[in-house]
Design goal:
homodimer, 651 residues, cytoplasm (chains A, B)
Chain lengths: 651, 651
């Protein structure tokens, strides 16, 4: 994907948008007066209002509407938890250091950059047209030295292309081989680099005054939710399925972040952990409501075939055909789409992409990303992963906490199994202080071993069992001490570890992508983005004449009390200029206060997108605004029922 | 303050309340299945809903109502910023380590604990009654060894009491002296302790892959706001005064936190930085609206006299009499009170306490705390500090960024001053490469020095100026090179660094204190806490009869769409039990679904506080609930206009 065209045919110009967003303080680099820190951004008033509106909508759409259990867990997380979850070992990128300049490169990005530059040089040397990939270009901090038009052997081109296609799959030693084999160096200085080393992406700190409790800032909100599973299940009166949800900051110590709001070191996430019985096909009771919703799907198979062609399909059909694994996963994909469309996302720039097997996080069993198309390419904004029983299982095994569901069986289950009886009375005197250790080792024997040992015991009258740490590591038990028999056990309660379906939203990415979609689809397009507009109404007095002030003030106070965010702009700029400034801030409606208003308390209400106006009494205008902001009526509805106003052109 | 009595005469029993709050998952220790970490708590669903409601109300009451500029800045903060702000040096507590056990004590708390125990022992020995201070008791993790009834000299008693009265004022070396002088040891083992060392309370980390950017988790949201001052002033079109506001987590690596939600290592803050012209008495344009509001004030002078007697006074009078310094500070004290009362705080348990001079943070010029009375004593929940121009000045000096306001003067200011003219043409050849350094040193001369040098120059024809790093550190300048004259300069623009008034809210502390107030004031008291109740309505079908289910479901969905949070409880417990369970969760209203409902679609609406019920049609009941939840009507209003229902007793 090279250039993105909008519905209105405009070419997306990121420079223009980003400069506007910074100028209007949607966001701004953090600590800029101290030189800034890459990957850290602050949100200013319009950005904050947008974030708040997105979070608000998310909470209504998911937490309230689906009765999820919201929790707020700490970001500080002790080492042991993230060691158990696998993050200490696996949440890492490979980096290479230039020993001369001290520069640090993310190894996979470096290989990509250098090989692509060489392929580009090869194409130039062959006289072929070079297509610029904006997404890749945007990732480069500094331009490498000018591409050299050097022709490569056909075999080398093929090797490079194969390497690039698999770039996400290499581990450190493999990256090291590639770097050596293709003589990859610092692109700016041509200096040699040290071999790749793993760099953990979690921010480390120390909890408390002694240094014996290392900890991290969480890389996701999920772990806190999992650790509370048992309490949440209790809170839900043991009823399954249910979901917990959490909104909060997470952290990722990127090696060299770029690409603005899309790759940052501190970010707001909204995550749902939906706990479901792994048996019975992971059905969802409200799937019926979703089944006819059509999604653009990009499956794993299509990607393997080298294509990025999406298929339009109802989620019902996608599940019938086995493309999407189960109803619960499908239900959430559809709900995610509804949420994104409510925000104002352009449906033509939304797709669901299935993860490749080697691309998934270490905990995931399956995963679909909701991706939004932007000038940076297709950006993962929501992940929807089936984390299976991975997390609950590892935490259960580590702590012994019963992170399981226990439910009465409709029909008792009969299980044939090899059972062990120990004669505890004789056991103590025989093994003294080791008695418990030996008993525990015996209890832990597998069914297979028990079957074999039962036979040995019958044939030889005694058996040998491995017991770590007791005498030579082997302990002899005879028929007086132990009995092993096949019996039937009746289980009335079923115990299982739920699987977790996890829709996980990157709020900053959604915000940025939606801004791109809304910004480039204004003219002639249906009103979008009203839901999340930071300020809903601009109050514009015709001039700064004293008689307008009490009216502006009264409108402002009345709307504040109605919960409609508004601003008065009584600066001396022309009305047209004031509207233009607020159009940039995304303010969808404007009220003009003029001399007629002073006389008869009527006001003009202006719609940003159509620039049409209506005129009515104060009460009618306020009621219309409430109705528009709450989504009960559209501008078209208002225009039909209130008299149009054309007397005064403000644009 | 020993025991807290509620309005209803009940004695506050913290054990009962805290156990209920944990059982109902208002909050819970984080990582409990891993053994927990002191000072870290997670909020469960009702706690989260309460926090969200408080934040919501805060945003409406302050940000929206007063048109503040909300920002969201990163928590990760580079070292240099917090070095400049003074936190690296001064945001620390003193701690003593027991070299044998490895235990770490906060030095001031330790001195307090030991001396108080000795004073108690002395009283016992003298046969006096010992009054237990619950606040102090609650701070102790383990009980020290049994108090010994040892009588002390009268002089020693006096010394101990004086030391305790000043305990907040001692620095490390002073604490060391006290510990040595009074032979203070580990209270449990009697072992000797190492001398106190400063422990910085910020969590340290490292930003990026190299270790050359140390950073901290912010101890307050304020610094991020200050660093954006210039951009915010631009956003506000250079108009003063204005306020920025921020809601977010901050961190404090407490030495040994206890006291539940009141002293935690990660906490939600809501902070306002109101920027005001230091000249003109810091007036506030909306002060008139607040002036008649009465506050309970505990002044510095009263505290110095050893009393804790508050004075009731309107904020207008408090400013007239000079007790509260200025209108802006007073305006915010009144607004803070209005906010806390809206939340449901008991007005009898709210006071404003002025900080003692030695108690204020390193940046504060004056400070009043809104304190709420709880079973832990009077707890600081909101600080309202005048930070003067401290922060903006230090950041300006460090970075050179113009964190100032520039405004045209109504009347140009004429300033008589000694001005220096240098003959730059001759200057270069004379000093060669040092020319600029010498010129800069001359420009930097103070008015006093200039006056003296002007006289020298006239009398001797030459002067000597200190210039560091040039020749011997002194440079001679004659009349050919320099002229110094008294002239009048006209200044049309005034430049000043604003002062900052900072209301700073600890949301967790407010939550806990409000819960105590609401929990113990239910019977016979006006309805309080409805505003922040996590769930507003409980839907209770009479039984789990199938005919009730569609009705419950319809009510639930309708209310969700109306934004009224509700839950259905169709468990098999009796109606009375189900209501009791939800009374604990603070659910203020209940709807009963019964056989009559199935017939005629009427429902019973129950008020938790009065346990009275009304009955009406579905639409009427839903409309009444909306009105109650949005605060448009009280239960009394509803009771007057809808028919009472007494047919069915549910309690």
């Amino acid at each position: 994907m090279a250039t993105v065209n909008t519905k209105t045919g405009q070419v997306v110009d990121r420079t223009v948008l980003e400069s506007m967003l910074r100028r209007r303080l949607f966001y701004t680099p953090s600590f800029e007066i101290y030189g800034g820190v890459s990957g850290l951004y602050d949100y200013g008033p319009p950005g904050c209002a947008l974030i708040n509106n997105i979070v608000d909508l998310w909470r209504k759409h998911f937490v309230l509407e689906e009765d999820m259990l919201e929790v707020d867990c700490t970001m500080l997380t002790p080492h042991e938890i993230l060691k158990t979850s696998g993050h200490v070992e696996k949440f890492a990128d490979w980096m290479c250091k230039d020993p001369k300049t001290g520069e640090i490169f993310r190894a996979d990005h470096l290989v990509e950059e250098v090989l692509e530059a060489r392929l580009k040089g090869d194409k130039e040397a062959r006289g072929q047209k070079v297509v610029v990939d904006e997404e890749k270009e945007a990732k480069k901090k500094k331009k490498a030295k000018e591409t050299k038009a050097v022709r490569l052997d056909d075999a080398v081109v093929k090797e490079y292309e194969e390497t690039l296609a698999q770039i996400d799959n290499y581990d450190g030693p493999e990256l090291e081989q590639i770097i050596t084999k293709y003589d990859i160096r610092n692109p700016t200085t041509d200096g040699n680099l040290l071999p790749p080393v793993a760099f953990n992406l979690m921010f480390q700190t120390s909890i408390g005054p002694s240094s014996n409790m290392p900890g991290y800032l969480r890389p996701e909100t999920a772990q806190g939710q999992f650790l509370n599973f048992q309490k949440l299940l209790d809170f839900n009166q043991q009823s399954m399925p249910f979901a917990s949800a959490s909104i909060g900051k997470s952290f990722r110590n990127e090696i060299s972040p770029r690409a603005g709001l899309l790759r940052v070191r501190e970010f707001l996430m909204a995550e749902i952990e939906h706990y479901v019985d792994p048996e019975g096909g992971k059905k969802h009771s409200r799937f019926e409501e979703m089944k006819d919703i059509e999604l653009s799907l990009l499956s794993r198979d299509v990607q393997l075939s080298g294509s990025t062609q999406t298929t339009k399909m109802t989620i019902g059909k996608a599940i019938e055909s086995g493309l999407v694994d189960n109803e619960t996963l499908g239900y959430f994909l559809a709900r995610i789409q509804l949420f994104l469309l409510k925000l104002g996302v352009d449906p033509a720039k939304l797709r669901f992409r299935q993860h490749m097997a080697n691309e998934m996080a270490h905990y995931a069993a399956d995963c679909w990303d909701a991706e939004l198309q932007t000038s940076y390419g297709w950006i993962e904004c929501v992940g929807c992963a089936d984390r299976s029983a991975y997390d609950l299982t590892v935490h259960k095994n580590k702590t012994g906490a019963p992170l399981v569901v226990r439910e009465p069986r409709a029909e008792p289950l009969k299980i044939e199994e090899w059972q062990v009886d120990l004669d505890k009375k004789k056991f103590g005197p025989r093994f003294k202080k080791d008695g418990k250790t030996v008993a525990a080792a015996v209890e832990a024997l597998s069914q297979e071993l028990r079957e074999k040992l039962a036979l040995d015991l019958e044939q030889q009258g005694k058996i040998e069992v491995d017991v770590e740490g007791v005498s030579s590591g082997k302990v002899e038990l005879d028929k007086e001490l132990i009995k092993i028999e096949k019996r039937t056990r009746v289980e009335n309660v079923r115990e299982y570890t739920p699987n977790v379906i996890e829709p996980s939203f990157g709020i900053g990415r959604i915000l940025y992508s939606t801004l791109e979609h809304v910004y480039w689809s204004r003219e002639g397009d249906e009103a979008r983005g009203v839901t999340i507009a930071p300020t809903k109404v601009l109050i514009v007095p015709l001039s700064n004449h004293a008689s307008f002030r009490p009216l502006s003030h009264r409108l402002m106070m009345k709307m504040r009390r109605m919960g409609i965010s508004n601003r008065v702009d009584d600066s001396s700029a022309s009305i047209g200029k004031r509207y233009a400034r607020n159009d940039e801030l995304g303010t969808p409606f404007g009220i003009t206060v003029d001399f007629q208003s002073v006389k008869d308390n009527t006001f003009t209400l202006r719609d940003r997108d159509s620039t049409k106006q209506v005129r009515a009494s104060e009460d009618e205008i306020l009621q219309a605004l409430k109705s528009l902001v709450e989504g009960d009526e559209t501008w078209e509805d208002i225009r039909k029922r209130l008299p149009e106003f054309t007397g005064q052109e403000v644009d």
